[in-house]
Amino acid sequence: MKKNSSIMLALTLVAILIIPFTVHSASAHVTKNFGDIIVKIGFANEPPLVGDTNIVQVFVDKGSGNNTAPVHETALDNMTVVITYGGLQKTLQFTPSDETPDEYDSTVIPSKIGSYNIMINGTIDSQPVNAVFPLDEVESKTAYYFPPLS
Hints:
This protein is mainly β. The protein is 14% helix and 42% strand. It has a single domain, classed as Sandwich (Immunoglobulin-like). Strands 1, 2, 3, 4, 7 and 8 form a 6-stranded antiparallel β-sheet that branches. Strands 6-5-9-10 form a 4-stranded antiparallel β-sheet, with no helix packed on it.
């Protein structure tokens, strides 16, 4: 009996240690619906840090509730996707993910601390899609240095 509880305790501890590294949280991604089109946008690496390479992820699905399907390969063909910071804008180019059918990725390196937004404009499967998506606040690396830099 003691052996079984020791094994269970060991397995529980292993799970507690491994799960945070295997589960990718997308809690900071923002989701908006446009008719039967669902668009979710956010940074892949959170918190986003100034000067670090990051990826803007766009997920596109069609349907409602639990009955949704990914929009494969062509979801952004008739879309303009722009990242903004203050009054500055840059049009992003996206590639479909090889691993996730509804995911489209564009690499960015935020160069300033502060608020960034994604503006989308166009159509997906004939559905007009126009909106602004706030991204996570880009932070300084200073708070994450250990040991602290002098």
